Amino acid sequence: MNELFCFYQKRASNHYKFLNLYSIYKQIMRNILIIGAGRSASSLIQYLLNKSQQENLHLTIADISFELAQRKTNNHANATAIALDINDESQRNTEIAKADIVISMLPAHLHIEVAKDCITHKKHMVTASYVSDAMQELDTTAKENGLIFMNEIGLDPGIDHMSAMKIIDEVREKGGKIILFESFCGGLVAPESDNNLWNYKFTWAPRNVVLAGQGGAAKFIQEGKYKYIPYTKLFRRTEFLMVEGYGKFEGYANRDSLKYRSVYGLDDALTLYRGTIRRVGFSKAWNMFVQLGMTDDTYTMENSENMSFREFTNSFLPYHPTDSVEIKTRLALNIEQDDIMWDKLLELDLFNPNRKVELKNATPAQILERILNDSWSLQPKDKDMIVMYHKFGYEIQGQQYQIDSKMVCIGDDQTYTAMAKTVGLPVAIATLQILNGKITTPGVQLPINKEVYEPILKELEEFGVVFKETAMPYIGYNPDKLATTN
């Protein structure tokens, strides 16, 4: 009888030990709330799911579309999908309160309410978006609460900051001084999927492409002189870039190259230029839309829903009783019928009288986006490509040198694109670094400190995000490198 009692006592003891262990396990499970399950979240979610067993992670994937969130869980045991209306304050607070850290992959203007809730519930936060003024205002409060609000930890901004600061810090550690910094980045179509005359397809938000460069003159500093390029001339001032194995590219200036001048500690640099990468010839062709007025987003066009592509094009051309739309377009743009620029316009079906815009109260920019989407959408078997290119000129003990740093990343498929990888993976890696106490500096910040960028850049190499650096004598900012498009 005593033996039987001992037997059951032992079993009961083991049972309670198991329950206690399970309870402890549940307590140490770290819950990551991911708000927004769009295209940029694919690689981010997959990375964290792959780490979830080892790192005791549970992912709550929240999106306005439950079906989309559910698909992103990949039926993983450590992921839960929920429908979340970001404007539902009560639900938003409830979910944030449950989390150990919050990742916001929402449109940039929606981050601030999430950030305020993170302050209330004392949760760390990670985003890939630019730091807004409203976000920056939370810096003091975040620091007082020991909270890390990591921003600009995607591709551009993100990988550009980290890869640039790595070399800038290395130069400074050698006693050197940066005198030139140029940085270019572009989302493009991979060579094997490059099959149109524009050598371009939308790999990210088409609207951002259509509106690129608007809102003021591009400004940068060149050999100590401030330079400005108005929007109407932006796409006629390009710099050529060579990337080994991938050929020739061009870069046009970003709107504000000086935004990060002080952030990078480059106030004394003689040249500072940031730009967007495209294949050679794209900018010259895009300039046709700018000159016609098709990229304007400031007014709506009457009866746009019933307008044909041909009527849209004709709207920007002068009236003529006999000349065709094609002839008027060529005259307006001063291009011949055998010019490749003309072939590029024809390829977009701009003169088709049977294709309808089907957008009500649309701006010219919205209609142009609609037309381009038909020709430039990635097809199911297409792959995208990210190209990043930095140039550093520096001086040590009176001698001048240059380093070129280049990165090319090719997407796997339509889910795990190069864009999704380069935007999502840094977010995911930073999130885990914060959870594990390896990133500790509190406040609203960018990934420009060594404790942040060094381990993230190293891990990104495992996913094909590798920078190749080439040292050479200093060349400087040479006007002869600019495309002769004035």
Distance separating the two termini: 101 Å
Helix content: 25-40%
- How is the main sheet built? 7 strands, parallel
Number of strands: 16
Structural class: alpha/beta
Weakly predicted, low-confidence segments? 479-486
Strand order, largest beta sheet? 3-2-1-4-5-6-15
Determine the number of helices (DSSP H or I, runs of at least 4 residues).
17
Overall spatial form: globular
Average pLDDT works out at: 92
Strand content bin: 15-25%
Cα gyration radius (Å): 26 Å
Describe the structure.
With 486 residues, this protein is α/β, with parallel strands linked by helices. The protein has 17 helices and 16 strands. The protein has helices at 2-28, 42-55, 66-72, 89-98, 111-121, 133-136, 139-144, 159-173, 206-210, 231-234, 282-292, 309-314, 325-333, 340-347, 364-376, 418-435, 450-460; strands at 30-35, 57-63, 79-83, 101-104, 124-127, 148-150, 177-189, 218-222, 225-229, 238-243, 247-253, 271-279, 384-396, 399-410, 443-445, 467-473. The strands form three sheets. It has a seven-stranded parallel beta sheet, with helices on both faces. It has a seven-stranded mixed beta sheet with strand order 10-11-12-7-13-14-16, covered by helices on one side. It has a two-stranded antiparallel ribbon with strand order 8-9. Helix 2 runs parallel beside helix 16, helix 4 (89-98) packs across helix 5 (111-121) and helix 8 (159-173) packs across helix 17 (450-460). The longest helix has 27 residues, at 2-28. The N and C termini lie far apart (101 Å). Residues 479-486 have low confidence and may be disordered.
